[in-house]
Design brief:
This protein is 43% helix and 15% strand. It is of the alpha/beta class. It is globular and about 50 Å long.
Length: 229
């Protein structure tokens, strides 16, 4: 049995968590575009803008339902303080980003990708209060360059109005999710591999930042924004 076949065996808790997200987000979703463009098998990275706690749930619910595959998010450890968020994060087999141990989390993500699985990341690292894109960290670019897995950009629109950061209640506003076509950052591979071989940290970071900028520009297009950084 291959990895994709194994991933169709969702646990009862996983199904409950996904059902919860459908129940909560469904009434607010105007549309979801691009599900047909998702890779049917093999590893890939999903990268999206981030402006609400709803974002991960929407992505996880719709993508895993469509593909019948697990999805492993990189998650902030601050979620551990909320019993519900902690349960959801651990149930969905997400990867905790412990402060000061980000490289360990990235190594776990790389292992999942090597196994042909899906890893999801929010390159901005935290939620935007007003929905406008923040400057991305180089992690998404680094993950794509090291793993050489295709990256699927996702633009989320309006969730900051439905469930604003710092608020406790949902607002009656419609939102949407736009999934782009898989991106391959292969034009960066030769220079990046050379920098890795030479242990040139400065050059590696520069290429990671440029790759992340390209990723964010596509996410911005899908979320009807511009990426000014």
């Amino acid at each position: 049995m291959d990895v994709t076949q194994k991933e169709t065996c969702f646990s009862l808790k996983y199904r409950l968590a996904r059902s919860l997200f459908f129940l909560v987000s469904g009434p607010f979703m105007r549309r979801v575009r691009g599900l047909a463009d998702l890779p049917k098998k093999g590893a890939f990275i999903a990268a999206a803008n981030h402006c609400s706690l709803m974002d991960g749930g929407i992505i996880g619910a719709y993508v895993t339902m469509h593909l019948k595959r697990h999805m492993h998010f990189l998650a902030k450890t601050s979620y551990k303080h909320n019993p519900l968020l902690r349960w959801i994060t651990e149930t969905t087999q997400s990867i905790w980003m412990e402060p000061g141990q980000e490289s360990r989390a990235m190594l776990i993500a790389l292992e999942y990708l090597k196994e042909g699985k899906i890893v999801a990341i929010f390159p901005e690292g935290t939620r935007s209060i007003d929905g406008r894109m923040r400057k991305a960290h180089p992690g998404a670019g680094a993950l794509a360059l090291v793993s050489k897995a295709p990256l699927v950009p996702i633009g989320i629109v309006g969730t900051h109005k439905v469930f604003p950061k710092g608020k406790a209640f949902l607002h009656p506003v419609r939102c949407e999710m736009n999934i782009g076509k898989p991106m391959k950052l292969d034009t960066y591979y030769p220079a990046y591999d050379e920098a890795v071989a030479q242990k040139d940290q400065e050059k590696m970071l520069k290429i990671e930042e440029e790759a992340s900028r390209v990723i964010m520009q596509e996410i911005a297009r899908l979320s009807n924004q511009e990426y000014p950084y």
